[in-house]
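so im writing up the methods section and need the HAD superfamily hydrolase (TIGR01549 family) record in one place, dumping it here so i stop losing it
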Amino acid sequence: MDSQILGRYDIVIFDCDGVLIDVNLFKSEAFGKAVANYPADIVEDFVAYCKNSFGVSRYVKFKEFLNDFANEPFQEEKYHNLLSKYANICKEIYGFAEITPGCEDLLFELSNLNKKLFIASGSDETELNEVLNGRNLSEHFTAIYGSPKTKSECTSIILSNNPNKKAIFIGDALSDMKTAKQHNIDFIYMSKYTIQSEEQDLLCRNGAIKVISTLVDLM
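--- predicted struct ---
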């Protein structure tokens, strides 16, 4: 492990999608599939928006879809139908998506060093716990947090439960960097599987204490 970096921290907070599991592109396409009954131009615009706002909860994005893209009055039933469609597609994606290089080795090593590991993700919390349990990754984490809480709320819970502990956030999106900055903790940017814009990528690179391609770079 890169002891000069991770060795200084008591707590390591991971994003999940694009950091632990290579699902970003699949999940952005899943947003399009969930709204496929709408006109193609609306679907295309929504998918492009989702790529550039990765890490923001589906609970927010589908409300935005109905209000800002479809320009429809909000309907609770339609909203929950979209969430259900998306969730079913995501279950399939998580079943075949690959765990990122170095992930399992790094988690084992950090666990053996008695580091406390957490997940703060924009993905659904219940879904994440099921997925990571099924992929034999959950055993490494003290807790796994996700939406409908925001990433900032997830991180706040982690830090509040671990006062006076030094923490770092490893993520692949601007939402991760903003969360780290909001809570005054360091940020490592993992770039290989990001699907955000060049501008967002540059902001993350400039805001990180270290830029890595995959978790192998921390070994």
